[in-house]
Each structure stands twice: as C-alpha cells, then as structure tokens.
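To whoever is on call:

I kicked off a structure prediction for a single chain this morning and the downstream step that reads the tokens threw a length-mismatch warning. I double-checked the sequence; it's 245 residues and nothing unusual in it as far as I can see. Pasting both halves so you can look.
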Amino acid sequence: MTARVFGVELRDELRAIVREPTSLFFSILMPVGFFVLFNLVYGHDTMQGLSAGTAMVATFGTYGVITVAALQPGIGVAQDRDLGWLRMKRVSAVPIGISLAAKATAALLYGVGVLALMGVAAAAFGTLHASAWALLRVAVVLLLGTVPFTLFSVAVGLRFRTGATIALLNAVLFPLAMLSGLWIPIQFLPSAVRHVAEFLPTYHLAQLGLAQLGSGTVVIHVLALLITTAVAAAVATMSYRRARI
C-alpha cells in the first residue's frame, strides 16, 4: 500500500515539474543551456588537468543537480502549504513523509536527466574525454551530494510562502554557483573568492565530482558534505516541527 501511494505521489511530482514552465526553465533548460554555451566556447581548453568539456560535466553538473534539488522540493512544499494540500494529507491516508519523499525523488530523477543531457552534449561536441565508469562515478557522487540541498529546500518550503520560497532559494543558489567556481573555473576567480569557496558545500561537491575524473582528493570534500548534511537535516527537522501546516 505504501509503495503504491508513493508511486502515485511520485508520478504527480514528475508531471508537475514538466507542466510548470518556470520550473522547467530554471531547473532543467537553463543549466543545460549554460553548459552547452560554455562547452562550445571553452570545451577544448584545459582545466585542472582535464579537458574543459570533461571538467564541466562535474562543475556544471553540480550546478544542474543542485538547481533541481534546491528549487523543486521546497517550491512544491510551499505550494502545497499555500493550497492546503499538506493539511489535507495530514488527516488523510497519505503520510506527509511519503509526499516529501516523492518530491525529493522526483528532483533526483530530473537531476539524472540533466546530467545525461550534459554528457550527451559534451560527447557530441567532442569535448568529453572520460570513461563510462568515471562518468558513472561522477553521476553517483553528484546525485548523492544533493541530499543537503534537498533538505534545505524542504526546510525553506515549510517555513515560507511560495513567492518567498522561490526568491530565497534563488538568492542562495546563484551566489553559491558563482562563488564555488561552477560557472567560471575556481582558479580564474579572485583569491578572496577562492578562500570563501572553501567554506561552501557547492564547491566541495564540484571538487568531489572532479576527483572522480582524476583531479584532486576526496576526504576533505566528503567530510564537508557530511557536516553540511547533518546541519541541513537538523534545520529541516526544526522547520517541520514548527511549520504551520
């Protein structure tokens, strides 16, 4: 019964993203579009010992997956709160936990699609130089790394109305992407920005992705993401307990 309810909720969440033009653009089309543009211009350059087109699968891939993970669950939760759906589910046979899990899973599946589109584009441009096994590791790492962003997104959606949730999540997401070197390679940014990046989870996730391609280490980045996940989980739990559903 639980699996069937989850399947129905998941199907509805997957359809909701496609049906909403704003979500479709900002969560999927824009990250892939940015990747295609930068790949066409810089794809054959060298970045951190890799072809830029290959490295961008990790850096722009990070931007792509966290965009979906950071926007979709929180916005969906905020919309459901505004419409009263979460209140109805609280007294219905659909546990709120299943609904939240469906939103997170839908975002994860769309993240897979974003990474696949980026990989296909890089291969088509001739800028992708990595084994299938390395690319699979990058995908797994980046998708697992979305957990703290999903938790933060849900926390925001539980506390704010839809408009405020959209504004706040975007206000956090875009500076994180810029300061973490997801669009512009970190070595080309001012030294002050590079120092700031070391404290940002988006930077550590991108570096962990690059490590799967043979550039860099993993221990410090894994530790940073585990700490971020613990903090995000605590914030999400607190938001849920205090939410006015």
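Update from on-call: the warning came from a stale cache, not from the record. Cleared it. Sanity check on the structure: The chain has eleven helices and two strands.
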